[in-house]
Protein 1
Amino acid sequence: MPCADITDVTSYFQLERCSKWAADYTSIALQFPDQLLPYSTKVAEYLSGGERSVHVLADTNYGACCVDEVAAQRLSTTAIIHFGHSCGSRVLSLPTLFIFGYQPLDVEEVLSGFKSCYPSSAGVTVVLDTPYYHCRAELQNKLRTICPGAVVQTRSGEQNTPNSHSVVEVSCEDEVFYIGGESLALTNCILTNGSRKVHSYNPETGETRLESRNVNKLLIKRFANIEKIRDCEIVGILVGTLGIKHFREVIERVKGVCRAAEKKYYVVSIGKPNPAKLGNFLEIGVFVMVGCAENSLLDCSEFYQPIVTPYELEIACIDRPWEVDYISDCSALIADPNCPLPPPSQDNEEDAKDRELSEKFHSLDLAVNFLNDRTWSGLQQRLGEDEPAVLREGQRGIAGFYENEEVCDSRMTGTGETK
């Protein structure tokens, strides 16, 4: 969203609502995505006052859609206001207010597109992208007249506060009508509703189309990575969040899955992943992203190794069945009664020590074999193999003019002539 689109900062960021909500806290953090950061000073000035301190969070360690609670705690803040698109992941502990922003939406055009997709009354769940959530009440009232079975999905505007409420989930019998443009949120909606027809309406283009036909293409790409997981020996657990509830439990479950499949694993925390960062870990065959539902579905075409989700890891390693509805929320895998982890072996103390020692030697063998297969293994000292070089005096002076140079810049002589 271009910054120039915002003309009324007070209305777009709902500053009156923010001020009332922040009245109960003495120190708050304001988290902005990159495209909204130029307005952070105006928002901070509006919310500052009295004994309340205001801090601006920018350049988050992970995805901007997740609340950066770790950065907020470093500043000793007691609450967070998150601006812009949100994935809706559960926050650990700090009270959080979500301000989704405002994008204009022609409700009549939406209803026209809705009727073209669902000419008869049917069970439909309408999912609004965050910039259009302000139209939820109006859209729900008008949908009742043409489709009584339609329900607009609610989204919690607060977390860890008395006013928090749960999100209405999509019913098994419902079809899905998504309102929003191309985004990771739409991709996640398509995958997690694989057993349902998903139509989308793009407010920017006014186009309504069936998205379910793209599910097979997306799943084929994801399914190809599962075979790579089975073939690899070393797995990298990529930490993609530090602020989502239960992320530690998810990491422990991923470790358990790797142990059950007898695969070596390393936990890697490097912030936002990119090919250059992950390229330093060439011995790792596949990375498992532990993050929010949207950031876990990375396009890894530019990466050297595939990046998969914990759900795909479990399909490859512990024979979890492939569900029609993809599970992108990794927290849903914790203590899943339908797919428990194999129980740990009941070894005595001596056998446990032998097994641990064996695993260490196995990991060492993997690392040594990988280094031996490399054609280049770094700079070598080659002590005693080469004749020492003859020392000679180097140049003296500054970069603009060295003493042994015959020609110098006229600015050094001050005469406009050369020597």
Protein 2
Amino acid sequence: MCQMDVRVDSDMDDVSHNDGDTFMNPGDTDANTPDAFITAIDWTVGASDITPQKDGSVLKVIIEDGTEEEFPSEGDTVTVSYDGFYEDGRLFDSSHGESNPYEFVIGKGNVIKAWDLGVATMRLKEKSVFLCRPSYAYGIDGFPPLIPGSANIIFRIKVLHWKGEDITKLKDGGIRKSIIVKGEGSLGPNDGGMCKVHIIGKFDGRIFDNRTVEFVMSEGSDAGLAPGLEYALRHFKEGELSRVQIAAKYGYGADGCSDRGIPADADLTYEVRMINFTRVKDHWDMSMTERLHCADLAKERGTEFFKAQKYNLAKRKYKQAIQYLDIKISMEPDELEKKNQLLLSSRLNLAMCHLKLGDNLSALYASCLALELDPNNDKGLYRKGLANLALGNCEDAFQDFTALLNQNPQNKAARQQLEIATENMKTMRSKEKLVFGGMFSKFAEQDSKAEQQHQHVDVFTDIGEWNNEMAKDMMTLEQEMAAFGEQMPAPKYNSKRDGKENENPGSDDD
């Protein structure tokens, strides 16, 4: 007997499978012995037809009720244990109880149609039995040699757990959505459009938010919505009811929300109904006139948020304005002039938002982009200088504030920051002098000591040190030569009588 994966391709007659080891259903002694419980089921009494057309193609009998009210839905990843039987009760496949569970995504065509349909009707921990006709199982061709063509089969399934569809860009599981009631249409709300929803937020089983709220998409935090919830709403259709699970980092994060009794690092669950929404035209479909108008509105809205010290919202609106304008197309001179003015002010304001939020690197980048449009802009130079100063780039900051004062000597703020940059440069150089000066002094001292030691070393005296101890038990050279059967070479002397040169330089014996 081989274990078979119940996954199929979109064509019901094309079935894929994985072979495995021989198995038995726990408690059975013979897989060919019909399961008494399965054969005892009377499918004409107490079974419910769960097919949309009510044609009896999938019948369901509940064995054990589930523990929750919710059901898994399309897009959810469900984990189940199961046993597969022929209609006569003989076992043909099993997950071996809960020891080897099976996981699949509902509604994606990864399993036979009866599973997609049937498991979506089950609650958590529910155990049910399904009679599956060929049209919802393995079709007229079956799955030879295991499943005959046009065969009715039975599955006993228990839902162990499930998790919603991961809708994060990073696919880190931080925001999961489970559809309870499908919505209408193919698109969800987008930035700038109005959105009306009813939300029920729960933390640790307690309802902390229950209201209908209407807001502009991208401004959800101004309505008290967690960032992850607003992000999830982009995936909703009109009329949709879904459950959304949000990890702490996409919720209220490390700060929590004291107004709603949410502690730091809290995971949240919402039930959300999308009542209605309006979409604005996507920026790539807009004319230049429309882009300028929307960019102006976004910039003004950003300024309102900035004045209210809502810097994250202001940052988002300035970025939105830049997105409308950051395009290279032919346009009329007056349009080009207005575009550059709006783009410059939006980038300068964005740089200021980054400075307020402590994101100095982004502030530096935004300032540099603004200065590309207007290299001598006072605000651009000043904000670039502030960002460089905060990043520790004192010399760059000095140059930024100096450039500003060269063209505007009366700018008191720039002069004050120039003094700070100058003082920081002096402090930094003093520290460098102490560090490197001390380092060079140590190097010079070490070199001096090494030179003194080199001048006073007596190598012959040092040899005497090891002669006294290490060589006391060693053989003399003559003894060592004799031990190896060698002879000492005869000495050769420099002799004027034989006219030969000294081949072994040394001291004369004369």
Protein 3
Amino acid sequence: MIKWGLVLALIMMITGTINTISAKLADVSKSWGADGCRSFQREFYHPFFQSILMFIGESGCLVVYHISVCLAQRRGEEPLRAGEGFKPYFLLIPALCDLTATSMLYLGLSLTYASVAQMMRGAVIIFTGLLARVALKQRFQRHNVLGMFLIVIGLIYVGLSQTLPFPGDAEDSSSAQSNARSPALGSIMILAAQLIVAVQMITEQKFISQYDVPPLQVVGWEGTWGLIASLILNLVFFFIPQFKSQVDSVINDFNADAHVNRTDPLCNVDKLKPVLDHLENPIDGLLQVVHSKELILASVGLIVSIAVFNWSGVSVTSYLNATTRMIIDSLRTILVWGFGLCVGWENKNPRRIGYELAGFVLLLMGTFIYKDIIIAPAC
């Protein structure tokens, strides 16, 4: 049983890493879309379309749940079911929180480095702890306060690594810089997303404890409601104009791109601008995915990894414990960071890396202390 638990832990760490890498791979990939100009490969900037892909993966957990119920019944066992009085629409509010947080996370990830995005997600402990204190009247022990303090200091170090000017920045590769167009703004958006995640977690805790809902069913219903809401949101955003600065940026790239076939009637600003002038254009996003092997790989990776990650996370909690799940989630930051450095997604300035490393260590220590892995409550 322990060996199976360790296998699940490994699966969770790998799929969690793949999920973050897949989202970032989509952000840095280029393809042609609804404008029809094949010679102009532009960046994939569709954070709200990406949320659809994530919720497809999450809603798949509901299918897995029903399969597990059927298998349990065939074996003559009592399947896990929600308590009496539970209604699926109870999870609509957590699903809307998930949608908001996911969209903000993908926006932030498109602006900053993957490792920084992963580290900033550690702020969820701060927000969850404070909300639990207010909403659920949970009391803090001294090790909780110490852990939260270290997490705050760690977040400050990670934030400083993105905002302070360091000698040698000009020598950093242009590809790494282009992968993080506005690291400070991206970090702020990810921090704000963690506040929404905290509201989601507190709401989930209320319903799970009150109605004893199986975790896979929770994830599946949230994915289903989130998928419906994200489809509606994408439709609404299609009729809202895109920010002028975003449209102008792509058009400037088009005008400066020497590879564009200017003799192609589809390759002109008049064709391109109507495609870009939507806050979200899911049709363009889908066509860009279809026309790029990298984006197909990233999209499939995003859908499959989020489903397997959620399933393995729930299973790790069952076979081992929630503490192990938290440790695994922290350690995958190292894998994301290492991969980003290898492929040139990260800023390699030694001083910036030093600040990030210090921030990561403090975040890790704070998380372990808060979760009572290092310091006992008696302290």
Protein 4
Amino acid sequence: MTALTVLVVVVASVAATAYDPDCKWRADVIDASDIAHHKYTVLEDCLYYKLSREADAMQGQQNSLSVYPPSIAAGETLEVDVHKVAIRQMWMSEAFQEMYINGYVDLSWKDRRLRWNHSDWKTDALNIKNFGRLWVPDLNSDKCDRKHCCFNLRSSLYRRYIKYFILPGKNGISSLDVALIRASWHIDNSWVRKVAADDDFKAEELEMCVTARGKSSTLSIELTIPLIISAPLVLLAPFFGTFQKQIHVKMFSILLQFLCFQFLASKTPQAGFGESVPRIYLFYAFTLCMSVVSLIITVIISAAARVVRKVPPAHRFTLLASVMNANVCCGMETKPVIDGTSSKDASSDWLQIHVALNDLSSLVIVVAYVIGLIIIAF
């Protein structure tokens, strides 16, 4: 029992002798590169605790270095330099209508409490590995409900104390770094700027905005090919011959467009597209409208052509229709059978005029369709 007691006392005595909270052995060191890695870590701990004690005495509070900002007098502000804001990952939850962004912000500021004598401590850098051992600005994100996807970074505890200064980036322009972003989205525009808080004009915030759009070449081809197949059917319908054939072709084209639009609707995100409408939707809607208008015009002209008329049309209209049908060569109708009751049956002349009207309306629809596509595309 006695031997065990003596052993414990000896070990405790050795440990007490080895513990040196001030790292007095640093006086024998000439350069920090001569210190072993584990001893350099001990030196950094000694320096940190020395600075922590001085900060507590300066500000009159415990744990000042890790809890309180580096301010002493009332009304002081802290200048925070924003070196870089980068986005590396971005994805969207369509069900909850939320966008998630992962990235980082490179900030720097001056802390008067982190001062020491280089010749005494043999180092000009202090690596603080634990995030909670040093006070940092408490920046929180707040999503803005705007047209662009914007996030505001603000300090909750020191709103008026922190003042931001955005340093110029590449070519003197400050912007978000999205070069290495990994996402199925294309960044059209992005920026970071300093703005005043909405509820306090003396408080500053960092506004980061991203304008993104989905990109998928395979999906784009998958949605465009049906439109390319169905749209020419409407444009080429007058070349299929009689009114009845043209009506069947246009009805089949409308059926294809409707089925393709249903397939497009199934690919629509649950959250929708907000205020913007993708061009592919405008293409489908415009093509479907033009097809319906073309079908209605052809049906009306076909019904009017079946009416038997005894009064002949004006001669100038007959000549104009004859010239148009001879040069356009779109529609072609069989001449009506004359019942023999009158040698002045004008059904053939009226039919020629109706065919010319259908060809003219088809030409107008084609021109309007091409102009509409150009407007939508550009």
